[in-house]
Every structure is written in C-alpha cells, then in structure tokens.
Amino acid sequence: MARNFVRYKGGFEGFKIIGNFQNKIIFPTWTEFKRNISTTLKTSVRMVAPPSDEESYDPIYNPQGMVNLGTGTNYLMQHEVKARVDKMRIQQLSLDTTDPGQIEKELSEEVANFMTKFFKAPENIQLNEIKLLNNVTAGIDLLGTFLGKPHDVFLCPAPAYSRLFRSCTQYSALEVVPVPLKHNLEAGQYFSLNVSTLERGIEEQTALGKRVRGILVTNPNNPSGEIYGHPLLLEIMELCQRYELHLIISEVYCLSVFDAENQFHSVLQLGSQIPDPDRTHLLWGLTKDLCLTDCHAAVLHSKNKSLMPKLLSSNLFRNILIPEQQFLTLYIRDHEWIINSFLKKKHQRMRRAFYRAKNKMESLGVEVFPSQAGFFLFCNFRKILNPNNEKNSIELFKSLLKNQVYVVPYWEMKCIEPGWFRIVFTAEDHIFDAGFDRIKKTVEEWNDRQRAVYRM
Ligand SMILES: Cc1ncc(COP(=O)(O)O)c(C=O)c1O
C-alpha cells in the first residue's frame, strides 16, 4: 500500500515533492508524519499513507506499531479462506504463459457464471460484456481514458472512497469532482443521495465551462455502508440519459451486506429497464467480497460495443497475473461452498463485529452511521470535539496518529462536515480492540484537556 504514495524529503519546513501530482497533494508516510507531529500540521498536508507492514501493529512482533483501522480489508474469514485454498489443487497452477488467452477465457466464463447467479441478472452475462482487470481503480481509469478527454469531469457524490478522487484518474487525467451530500444529524438525516443534488452539480460544473461526462456511484456506499435501491438508481440513470452522461456504478461491497433486514439489488437485475445501457457500466472487485486480501482482480461489465474492443487493447497493463487467474477460476467455481458456507458465515461474523465495534465506539460518545454493508464504521466525533470544526478534527487526527492508530479522516473522503472518521470493523477482534484502546485513550486525553481549558 504505502509504496503507492509519494514520499516527501526533509522536515515539515522544507517539503520536497517527488513526483508530479495533481493538486500538489503531499503524501507523507505515517512514520515521517509522526516524526514531525509536534510541528503544526500545514493545511497542505491532507493525506497520510496507511502504515506499511513493517510499521503495523503486531501483538508479538511489533506491539508498539501502528494499528491500521484505515485500510479496507476483511480479516474475519481468514481461516476459512486458508482452509479452502489448502484444499484446492494449487499444484495445478503453473507459470506457463503460452496460452494466456485461454486462461483468461476460462476465468471470464467463471466470472460471467458467478455474476449471473450472485448478481441475479435476468439473462446470462455474455463474455463480450465483461473485461477482467487487475483492480477496480484501473477500471475507472480505463473508462475515463476511453469515455472522456483530459480535464473532463466525472461527478461523484461525497463522502466517497478517497482514491476515487485521485488514483482513479492518473492516466485518463479526468477530474473526479465531489458533489457534497447534505446531512443533518439532529433531523436524523444522513448524507442523502438524490437527483436534484446531482443535477445541481452538473449545472455548476457546466457553468464553470467544464464538460461533465459522467457520474460515479458506489453502491453499497463506501464509507457509509448505505444501500441505494432501484428506484433511486433508475432516477439517476434517467438523469444521466437526459444529460447524455455515463454512469459508472461500483458494486465492490455487494456481497458484503451484513444487515439481514436489508437486501442489495445489483444494477444488473434491472436488465432491459436500464434506460441507456450503452452508457451504464458496472465494476466489481473479487478481492473485497471474497476476502482475498492479497489477490487483485476486478471485472468491468458494459453493454457498450465500441468500448469493449478498446478495453482489450489495454491488456498488457491491466491484466491479472496468470497464476492468480488460474487460482480464481478454481476458487469461484464452487458456488455451493460460497453460498452455503462462506457467505453465510461471513455475514454472521460481519454483523457481530459491526455491532460489537459500534457499541464500543458509542460508549465513548461517538455517533455511528447506521450502516448496512461494507467494512466500515462511519463515525462522528462532534460531541467530543466541541466545537466540531476542521481545526479540532485535525488535532484529533494528529492525536490518534500519535497514539498509534490509523483511521481515515473526513477530508480524504471529500466530506464537507468536520468530525467524521472512517474506522474498519472487519479486523480480527484483538486487532480492533488494540485500536479501540488507543482511540479510547485519545478521547480520554482529549476530554481531560477540554476540562482543563474550561477550568481555567
Ligand atoms: C468503492 C471502492 N472502489 C474501489 C476500491 C478499490 O478497489 P481496488 O483495490 O480493486 O482498486 C475500493 C476499495 O476500498 C472501494 O471501496
């Protein structure tokens, strides 16, 4: 992870940016950040890279290390995944790349079958509608490359997964512009996605002379875990049709719905009801939903006939490694195991872990978004920050880092409301607890400081 981030040299006084980054964002690693923690945080520093493996907490080998509750991984099924992999005939895998086309075709067939079944598509998904990729981010970048021109705009309701605003557009040079969603906690209203907000976003960008090419929606949402139903999606699709925009829907967490009351419905289920199939594109990653933490694979589904051949031309740079393809073909073939064992256990464990973590955070006076899916507690610290503003949020974030726990602050997700932090609950219990103890310590220190100020 950390290697994806540009590092800076020198102290906070003398930033040197290595690399050519949009918006001149500086990415210190957390160790470098911590080294300079006593220096005032410059507002230009917006991103902190997650801790590397060497920097991360381990109860035996690195008890002083940073607990990473920021990176979106699900460790609740590690034993089952390992047992399943052990059972598979991994010796069948080879490094023979003489017929990569055949290996890719086999995996594409399995993925098409898998998606037809698990996404409940009304008709069988055809091979010429999907393209395998090495990750979801690459899929968005490729769509940007082939659907737009540099500096065209894709709108993305925010808060959203932070990389959507940066690494998704590294090659396409597209701008992903956040459309802030309103919320009013007192009125019980959370960041509500609606068509009028998106339409205002289109008009604002057009007035600025920008060409809006599309809208990017994540369903279930990251970070909030909210599920958007078909009626809303259809309204968004009609909006896109009216403005001739592309709609990219990322369903990265569609098999990670842990709230038994709520059902997720993939956009694929809409079949012929999709108003503009040529401009509707779906992305799904195999990594998150199947808990394959170190395996990088994704799929793009589109009915756009002119897009698919272009995507094929990107094979050299975006392919999944051949042994990984062979592994995945075997792994996703056993639908019976995935439905009756893997997903059942996963959802039970996620439900338990979510409420366990939520109760702990609420015991500190933190409000937690009523999530239904995904790996995150979306937490609001406003009652602790008091007053809830950017300055206090940055101070709290610095204190969390100082106490060795990494979470994702609201500004990385382009959330306009201060006080929000994204905290992963799908860590193993003992890792979550180690992180929670540090969050608790930070909140207690914060409360003590506030009490001391009021006493003065
Ligand atoms: C909504 C969303 N899209 C994309 C990704 C990244 O997926 P990948 O690592 O396959 O690029 C994530 C990862 O957390 C995500 O939450």
TrEMBL record:
<dbReference type="GO" id="GO:0006520">
    <property type="term" value="P:amino acid metabolic process"/>
</dbReference>
<dbReference type="GO" id="GO:0008483">
    <property type="term" value="F:transaminase activity"/>
</dbReference>
<dbReference type="Pfam" id="PF00155">
    <property type="entry name" value="Aminotran_1_2"/>
</dbReference>
<dbReference type="InterPro" id="IPR004839">
    <property type="entry name" value="Aminotransferase_I/II_large"/>
</dbReference>
<dbReference type="GO" id="GO:0030170">
    <property type="term" value="F:pyridoxal phosphate binding"/>
</dbReference>
<feature type="domain" description="Aminotransferase class I/classII large">
    <location>
        <begin position="66"/>
        <end position="427"/>
    </location>
</feature>
<protein>
    <recommendedName>
        <fullName>Aminotransferase class I/classII large domain-containing protein</fullName>
    </recommendedName>
</protein>
<dbReference type="InterPro" id="IPR050478">
    <property type="entry name" value="Ethylene_sulfur-biosynth"/>
</dbReference>
<keyword id="KW-0663">Pyridoxal phosphate</keyword>
